[in-house]
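Step 1: inspect the first sequence and its tokens.
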Amino acid sequence: MAKKRNARNFDAPQLHGDHPRPVTRRQFVAQGFRTGAAYAVGGGILSAMAASPRLAQAALSGDLDAQLASCGIATSGAGKIPFICFDLAGGANIAGSNVLIGQEGGQQDFLNTSGYERQGLPGDMIPGLVDPVTQQDYANFDLGLGFHLDSAFRRGILASLTPGREAHINGAVIPARSDNDTGNNPHNPMYGIARAGANGSILTLAGSENTDSGGNSMLPAMLYDPELRPTKVDRPSDVVNLVDTGDLAAILSPRDATAVMESIYRLTGSKMGNVNTQLQPLDDTAMKRLVECGYLKAADIADRFAGVPVDPSLDPEIVGPTGIFTDAEFNADDRDAREFQKTAAIMKLVMNGYAGAGCIEMGGYDYHGGRRAEGEVKDFRAGRCMGACLEYAARLGTPLMMYVFSDGSLSSNGAIDNTVEGRGKGEWSSDNSSTAGSFFLVYNPGRRPTIIGATPEEQAIHQQIGYMSSDGAVQRAATPAANNVNLLVNTVILNYMALHGEQGQFANVFPNHGLGNAAMQDSLTAFTPIVNGTIANPV
């Protein structure tokens, strides 16, 4: 059944008759009225200087170097697996048309035809059938985790990946309900990832939005730590500015710039005794130490980053003739470019160890009520950004855990969009939290991550943590995560720790986790470890 739709700009704001007018930032983002600003800039001072950071670096004086730890200044990351999450604001499709979610037996325990129709797939495109043109099965496992052959996520990921990279990727999917059309779902796991040990040499967490979570969805209240609030980074210049010493580095050599910052620190320390803060003695001491540590941080940055090429737009692995993005698509004045710039900024920080974890928010994913083409275009864009992170990890030779979630989901009524971009799939007719799910992909430089289980049957139920009914609805009693977003976050954190071989520490780090005993936690874990504690010790 075909349905004629008036043409519209896919990135135009979405006005739904069944939604109230947006009034909050999160609602504006979800419906595409607002997007995270991003732009590319030319070479900054740091990136224009010498390309060899160690040759340019002038080590801090010994007495100051010894004080870095007492100021809480990290000179290197924690060495944990880089973690990036994608927050698709609005209620994006994940199940069925993108990532396959089956019944109790796993992804290949297929749903019935009406279940897949509900998830946007017509009867002639359901998993188990073969594409008549390519003769490939619609259930595709090239990325380890099963995707629909024509998944827009999958197509976008592969468009950013060098062929062959997929052999080192695997993933797991978690069928789990969350509320529709709200940013109040506590989806974001980054604070828990930090508590599990992730940290960077500049900051602990980075996010593309100026929120407590760094994205659209909230974080679980029990994980909140004001000291971990993500730093907003959504463009290449934000990365440069994190370590920018201004004109000082342009006027002086890196060594002299470091010496000047050291002198300012010493002068500040000598003058602090004469400053009357009018605070109580303990508070007075703490305040003065904070000021001193700020100057020490500046000296450390001048030492470590003068001459270090930190600008993502000038990284040839990211942008350029041999980069993940071409110059034209990265610097275009359009929505694709803005999302590519945002992704480049976050992945540059996280994958190079400057931040422990990052969140990339992408808005406009409340795309029901229009042509299917709109969702396909936006999902493909998201896939390009996901694939960019995986490709960059591969180029750097570092592992990566990438997590994708959205607030709620949606369903189809069976009407077909036969436009070129609609690809003959079902139109998204309404919000539907019962078809929701999240997934994560893991890149491992040495080998494809190994799913737990001695048999294919056991592996199948570890790769799909939970299940759906035959008609395509989340079974709420299948796992603790299925009907509780807080526990969904804890399940993701458990899997992050398991990749390090540290799942046995989970209960100590998160004593009120809600994931049951050790046996239950094992059932919620997808992979055997890929590193032993840190990425310096691959398994």
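Step 2: inspect the second sequence and its tokens, then contrast the two.
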Amino acid sequence: MNPTPSVPAPRVLSIAGTDPTGGAGHAADLKSIAAMGGFGLSVVTAVVAQNTQGVVAVHTPPVSVLQAQLDAVAQDVELDAVKVGMLGSVDVIETVGAWLAAHRAPVVVIDPVMVATAGGRLLEPDAEDALRGILHHADLITPNLPELAVLAERPVATTWDEALEQGRAVAETFGTRVLVKGGHLSGESTPDALVVPGRTDPVAQYRGSRVATRNTHGTGCSLSSAVATVVARTGDWAQGIDTARRWLRGALRAADSLRVGHGNGPVHHFHHVQDLVTDPAFVAAACAEDDDAAHADSPGHGPAPAVSPAQGAAVAGPSARAAAGDASAGGEAAASCAGAEDPGTRFTDELWEACAPIREQIAVLPFVVGLGDGTLERDEFERYLDQDMQYLDAYSRALALLAAAAPEEGTREFFATAAAAVVTGESALHRARLDGRAPEPPSGTTSAYADFLLARTGQDGFAVGAAAVLPCYWLYAHVGAELTQRARRTGLEGHPFADWLETYDDPEFHAATEVARVAVDRAADGADAATREAMRRAFLRACHLELEFFAQTSAVTARREG
């Protein structure tokens, strides 16, 4: 059954057992649903006393209590998706199966909890047969390899080809989609694949390297719940699995930071918002009462151009994007999402650290220093504007190419909006500063930067293209916060570039920078080693080109003065 796409906040029911340490079962389900933007509901099938070291005891409430929970939900809430986990007994399985038949949700995902990670069978043979009898209610089943083998009635697969063959057999037997998961295979690769009845080749295959952590408790629960939520929202199974998988890989990478228990701990379900919720800029943008509020008038120049959220996401040309060194430790750059880092958990953290020497060089450029303290000569600033106008034309086209290559709708919309808003946002500020006169022709440095971005976004795929564009956001957000804070120490009133600084130190732009970072992180999650290295090279090359772009203005001035 195909779901209705574009559900704003999917209502997703978890039917599962408990976990008092919060890593698996309905606790993991509810966290995963929330992390994917859904509203979670919960029906408890079993009260499980467990922790990160194992199961201590299991109590199964009377079936009448289970039925009452299910009926209470159905009588009051229109569900967009249902995820089924631990069921445990024949009576429980049959009760849930009958309820699914009577109250069909648009999306049903069943995680057939049959075999423990250690290999022990969790269901009696009659319960296994009962579980097979309800799988036709599922739009997707998500067995691990031992569970897949039980359903296929074959030995546990030891190769990826064997796993795919078993997945195809199970899909045909039960007439539903199967997510074949390769996490139990040996080696560093952890492939997954979506297979469907009537088709030999997988609908989609997903690659990735194994995340080095023992904290994997509840990964099966978390993934299946996340998939149900995303698909309820979008209607796209292949892309929904990809989105949920990328999120889970990030949750695994951040799992060690939780420090829950002494055994195999849980994953970090909310790793993707950990930094944002402590970022004043993010909070300010999220809690803004009036998105249409205009910026204050700038001295001597009339109203500064108002930058909407969409425009703020786009204003990322070289203009004032030079990174003026590292943000000060006293919280001066706390308004920038770029300053909120969680070392060791994100690919973009590695990129930011690698570009530190470039940021240090940019920080001391006379142009950057003069822009911040107001001593920059007007003609020098206008020479910079001349080149930036040329850059912006290519930059907007590069963003459009990136939007066309983006793997998901939200990312496509983000970069497409950014491409369009460059003209109405940043370019408008340039034209006002240049009094409408035509800019000078592009320099060799400007042309080189423009050609680089167009080549990476047009030829190298989304992952590399996004990495190439990221410095245009991140370095700029960094310097915007830094230079504005410097100017505020002495007072912005009377500062010759106050309109410029205030326009570009915008909380909405800092939030957009974080969106661009997330896009790069997600692309890196699903990339192989060669692609990740290409992303790294593209990011650092763009940082070097930012340095050269700003240095050219200072160099022209030095030559003229000499």
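Step 3: confirm your contrast with the notes below.
The chain has two domains: 11-273, 308-561. The longest helix spans residues 529-561.
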